[in-house]
């Protein structure tokens, strides 16, 4: 699926070929990185802390520019250059911590009078609003909105400055899902949710992919219930795509169908390799013999 030399198909929702990226004045995070995902897939993005998951999701969301115009394509359009991808709501990114203003929550496309720009210019701070106003975005299918409000158990009378982190997160997720996205990028968004909200949300995502052909990439460290949820898995190690395949093709899952143990074993062996690489070369220590006229090569060899 992901190999550079493997032919991509026209129904790929995500296509990354030969991508290189580095943060300003830093060593490259990605070098010649390739990933293809077919429309309708639900791909888990796994990897150790700092391996590059968030960076990759942000690149797919068009938030970071990479060299070359068609290197990162979402729905056959350039993720960075085609701003309509996000503005239309076809591409939605949900991640990071909840922010108080629409300006930052504007990762979610808001339309109509409640547009992100309008709110920023108005200097309006979402944090004191009734949730009712936050989710009442114009041009949204009311049935879909009701479904999401019900699914996420959102009380429209909540005041944003008086709700818990998990409740804020539910509102953020609701806003991000109001528009029927075609590609959804999720960066560990279920972390504040209780188990019922999380499982219901995963089921909703599954329906979106199965019924509408939407594509989801989900970076997470929480694997409960994901064995049967995901269709694909991409494992990033230090900016390299270590594995990328259909879930059904992961050989380790056939012997132990427990995703947590499988990923844990990958990360543990990765840590061992990294530790070996980092093992310091024993430093040469000067000894009393070094300055002695009687020192022998045997002594020197012993101390080095
Ligand atoms: N704004 C930045 N400037 C410079 N380096 C950064 C920046 N953001 C991330 N990095 C570096 O890029 C690498 C990948 O970070 P990234 O956040 O993509 O990892 P991650 O896999 O999402 O990690 P985690 O599982 O901890 O969320 C890390 O080495 C990190 O230090």
UniProtKB/TrEMBL annotation:
Protein name (record): ABC transporter domain-containing protein
Q: Where is this region: Disordered?
A: 274-304
Q: Which Pfam families match?
A: AAA_21, ABC_tran
InterPro entries attached to this UniProt entry: AAA+_ATPase, ABC_transporter-like_ATP-bd, ATPase_AAA_core, P-loop_NTPase
Lineage top rank: taxon = Eukaryota
Origin species, per record, is: Brassica rapa subsp. trilocularis
User: What stretch or stretches form a coiled coil here?
Assistant: none
Keyword annotations of the record: ATP-binding, Nucleotide-binding
Note the PANTHER family from the entry: SKFA PEPTIDE EXPORT ATP-BINDING PROTEIN SKFE
For this protein, the record's SUPFAM superfamilies field holds:
P-loop containing nucleoside triphosphate hydrolases
Domain ABC transporter stretches: 14-263
